[in-house]
């Protein structure tokens, strides 16, 4: 299978041709057109070529909640969003806390064949926060787990967190923390502030996140390990991460598209589409998260794609599940909020949505390498984006099994046109290719 991407914009350089064959980038520039032979030609005029996007934070719901998402449906949504790899969170049923479950998820991803699905292993057995899960067995399994998280739950016991941080050092792993002090957020429904007071909904204070972030960067420093802060949502968390990095602490941090774009004002309609964990915060927090992403304090954009069924979402606010879908809109949100506003270049987008997440997840080398530069000899994981295309989000047309996107009717600038996984198109002309298997 050969594809010639004609006249695409490589990051920071002149437009050029890129030839993909046998799963790798075989030629760039004049060589590419010369060697193209019978390759299928794609007109890349006006398109930006990015290394295939990598999500460190996807909920695929399989095993257990296949009515909300499966590995196959989530893989299709990911490909449409420009992703070639996603990390699947462990809060499934059963929980991904054993080698058996993570191997199952890995294999389902390979069978679906649209993206590489890298399973995240749970930190604690059953996400209960009491006893360390079999981290070593998951790391040594066929799934080669390197990212460990109880996401959805906070590892709140400092002794357990310390042990996890110490343990993952043996195999160069990372603990990805969902920073939420449980006592400070008991019964909480939305950000604690003026809007929660006016709506009469129980508030979720910023300090509930910040106190855990502060503790964990100090623990990471103490044991000399890596910690990754998931979905940073407050200005104070950005400040703490900035402080920790200045001290040389091995902390990385994530922003979600929704914390870059939406505020707690959206709760005023009591529409549970805007109910998410951590909650949407204030305009000042959104600005701090954007500034943190722009200055490198925040390393990556992770979707926190959290699909939920209509039954779990289409109900009164207090009863609804936390979470929103994100795979199919992430690039458009980042493009609209950060690139169109001049705060990130497309090279920055490649960094925060591909290169750095691949490095943090330790999937930047080996036979399933992602986040590699677009260079001769590298795996042909490529995403083509039209940076000026304007489009309106229509969740009813999403490939995800679930419909709980907060962006229905929103107009975005910047759209994924094609995605290639090891040289094989998974998306062309903005639509899924028919072929389902490698
Ligand atoms: N981010 C979310 O709002 N939801 C996540 C887990 C979580 O509660 O963090 C989910 O799995 O649905």
Describe the protein in words:
- This protein is globular.
- Helix content is 28%, strand content 21%.
- The longest helix has 18 residues, at 206-223.
- Helix 5 packs across helix 7 (206-223), helix 7 (206-223) packs parallel to helix 8 (235-246) and helix 8 runs parallel beside helix 9 (283-294).
- It starts with a strand and ends in a 6-residue tail after the last strand.
- The chain has helices at residues 30-35, 71-80, 99-112, 135-140, 158-168, 194-199, 206-223, 235-246, 283-294, 310-313, 330-339, 346-360, and strands at 2-8, 16-21, 24-28, 40-43, 48-51, 53-58, 83-88, 116-119, 147-148, 174-177, 190-191, 203-204, 227-229, 251-255, 300-301, 382-392, 411-421, 424-428, 431-432.
- The model has no long low-confidence stretch (mean pLDDT 97).
- The protein folds into two domains: 2-48 and 376-432, Urease, subunit C, domain 1; 52-360, Metal-dependent hydrolases (TIM Barrel, Alpha-Beta Barrel).
- By secondary structure, it is α/β, with parallel strands linked by helices.
- It binds N-carbamoyl-L-aspartate.
- N-carbamoyl-L-aspartate (NCD) binds next to loops.
- The site of N-carbamoyl-L-aspartate has 11 residues, from loops.
Sheet with the most strands: spatial strand order: 5-16-17-18-19
- Going by CATH, what is the homologous superfamily of the largest domain? Metal-dependent hydrolases
* Global shape: globular
Number of strands: 19
* Number of H- or I-type helical stretches: 12
Q: Radius of gyration over alpha carbons?
A: 21 Å
List ligands, each type once. N-carbamoyl-L-aspartate
Structural class by helix and strand composition? alpha/beta
| Overall helicity | 25-40%
CATH secondary-structure class of the largest domain = Alpha Beta
- Straight-line distance between termini: 11 Å
CATH topology of the largest domain: TIM Barrel
Quick check: average pLDDT?
97
- Give the biggest sheet: 5 strands, antiparallel
Low-confidence stretches: none
């Amino acid at each position: 299978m050969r594809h010639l991407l004609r006249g695409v914009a490589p990051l920071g350089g002149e437009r050029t041709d890129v030839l993909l064959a046998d799963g790798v980038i075989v030629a760039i520039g004049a060589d590419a057109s010369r060697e193209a032979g019978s390759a299928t030609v794609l007109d890349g005029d006006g398109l930006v070529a990015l290394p295939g996007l990598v999500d460190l934070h996807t909920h695929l719901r399989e095993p257990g909640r296949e009515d909300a998402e499966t590995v196959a449906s989530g893989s299709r949504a990911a490909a449409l969003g420009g992703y070639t790899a996603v990390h699947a969170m462990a809060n499934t049923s059963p929980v991904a806390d054993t080698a058996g479950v993570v191997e199952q998820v890995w294999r389902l991803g390979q069978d679906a064949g649209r993206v590489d699905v890298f399973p995240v292993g749970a930190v604690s057995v059953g996400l209960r926060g009491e006893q360390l899960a079999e981290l070593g067995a998951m790391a040594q399994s066929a799934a080669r787990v390197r990212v460990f998280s109880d996401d959805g739950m906070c590892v709140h016991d400092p002794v357990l967190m310390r042990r996890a941080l110490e343990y993952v050092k043996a195999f160069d792993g990372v603990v990805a923390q969902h920073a939420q002090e449980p006592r400070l957020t008991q019964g909480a429904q939305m950000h604690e502030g003026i809007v929660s007071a006016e709506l009469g909904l129980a508030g979720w204070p910023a300090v509930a996140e910040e106190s855990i972030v502060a503790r964990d960067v100090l623990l990471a420093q103490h044991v000399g390990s890596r910690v990754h802060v998931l979905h940073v949502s407050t200005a104070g968390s950005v400040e703490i991460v900035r402080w920790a990095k200045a001290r040389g602490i091995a902390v990385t941090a994530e922003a979600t598209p929704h914390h870059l774009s939406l505020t707690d004002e959206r709760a005023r309609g009591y529409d549970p589409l805007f109910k998410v964990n951590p909650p949407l915060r204030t305009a000042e927090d959104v600005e701090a998260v954007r500034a943190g992403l722009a200055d490198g304090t925040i390393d990556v954009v992770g979707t926190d794609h959290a699909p939920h069924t209509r039954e779990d979402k289409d109900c009164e606010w207090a009863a609804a599940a936390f979470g929103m879908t994100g795979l199919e809109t992430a690039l458009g949100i980042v493009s609209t909020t950060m690139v169109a506003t001049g705060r990130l270049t497309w090279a920055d987008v490649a960094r925060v949505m591909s290169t750095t997440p691949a490095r943090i997840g330790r999937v930047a080398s080996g036979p399933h390498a992602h986040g590699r530069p677009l260079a001769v000899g590298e795996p042909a994981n490529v995403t083509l984006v039209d940076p000026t295309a304007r489009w309106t989000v229509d969740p009813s047309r999403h490939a995800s099994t679930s419909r709980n996107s907060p962006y229905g009717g929103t107009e975005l600038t910047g759209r994924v046109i094609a995605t290639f996984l090891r040289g094989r198109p998974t998306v062309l002309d903005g639509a899924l290719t028919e072929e389902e298997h490698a």
